[in-house]
Amino acid sequence: MYKSKRITALLAGSVIAAVPFVSQITVVSAEDYVIENPEVLTLFGDVNFDGSVGIADAVQLNRYLLGQTDELGNWMNADVYEDGAIDAFDMVYLRKHILGEKTTGGKVNIKVVEMMTGEELETADVLFTEEKDSCLYNIGEWTITPDDELNIYGLPNDPSYTYLLWVSNLPEGYGDNFGVWDHTFEFSFDENSDTKDVVIRVLADDEECNIDLDYMDWTQGEEYIGYGNVSISDKDGNSYYQKLYVDKVALPDGEYNAKYNLFDYPVQLVDPESDFAKEIKELYPDIDIEDISDGIDFTVKDGKADKDIRFNFGPMDGCSNYVTVNCIDSMTGEQIEGAEIAIVEAPKKYARTVKSWTSDGESIIISGLYHTGPYAYEVKVVSAPEGYTCTGSTYLNWGYVYNYSNDVNFYFIPDTAEKGLTLNVYKWPDNELYNDYATYSIWTNDEKILGEVRPGEEFALPDGDYYTVPNAVSSEDEKYEGIELDSALGLEFAGAVNCDDYIGRSDVFHFTVKDGKTTKPIKLYVGEKPQEEEEEETEVKE
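^ thats the sequence. predicted structure below, dont judge the formating
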């Protein structure tokens, strides 16, 4: 195995004009060329591995065959006859290669044309590279014009080799990229083929895009473009766009296929026969879900596509997300019966109730949850059983559908529980009681125990460690907020109040319940927002 630090191996390219072939061999220096133990075929005939094929290679091979040296720059390049041995047959083939006779390897013909007309551009620079075994080799760089046909010979035509072309320095009016596609063209030789015609099509900067591409992630219920890229070719397989990351393109009249190339994300194109597709149809009866695993065939006529080109994304086969719901007596920790619970999909959008049930004293697992994004689902208490109090809900937020799971525990307070706990809120720095500021949730570890505790009102908790978290604040009170302890006001606050039990803010407080009572009073503080924040929020509203 060889190690490569930087490889600048330039290969012979021929610009075919009215001159003999031998004079067309490009001889270049191998500056910045650093490679050890080369064992990868890069160019048939490049014996000394200097990036070109010429007389120097024949001299090197001849010296090797005569035993005058045991050095070869690249023995795989020297095996021009492709029989696994370096012998006189390779010399015969190398001489033919230098004289322009087709012997070994593949040939590539390259053109750069205008997207809409198919006419060759006045000029374009082409940088040609080869990729093999995760290493990239520079093959050469040329400027081509309509009068010069760029043909490259002697390339390994094994389909395991990948070739990359970069096009740049286009005529005025043509950018070096379209969207974020940098006009990189990637190809390999077909099986048992030794010739490849490569036509790179580029679009004028002022060309109006006439084709819309839609990308719909049905798990999120919104358009999303970032799961991969689109390639568009005509009915004969000729490439028009290889890597699109845009929602509009330009195409001349013709018949095409648009194919989506997924990156490594846990999504796939929606199977029209899947349960997920059936759910989509239930919600959106007018949506047509087709099998587009082989791409979307469409026709452009008079500048317009004959159908919508939409790529529909959904969860991978066999994947859904799950939630386990428990209804618990907050004082005993035991499961209870009789609580009415519901789970709602997309509560901020179409609010579809997925399932509702009455607790039976056991955990319940809900599967088949395919929605993602913020507020994907809401699990809520519809009503508490007789003798208990519990309100509130929990939102589920997932990035993907990938067999993720969440536990949701609702804690119900028995009416018989002794409610001797309170929390109070004060304005800082005047210590004025301000219990109308907000409601609070009570958490232990990462689990919410109580959801709507009002300051000044009594509540009950079993013995244990807890902390407070403020809920949403009403709009009229937006000028107040918990004080960040590392802010200027927070440092002033910390100089006057023991902050050992505050967690980052003056309204997030750690406390302990022992024998049904808190070990210290729960005192929360809020201060006026800094003036800058108020001005920024005013500007946003305006």
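The domain at 418-542 is CATH 2.60.40 (Immunoglobulin-like).
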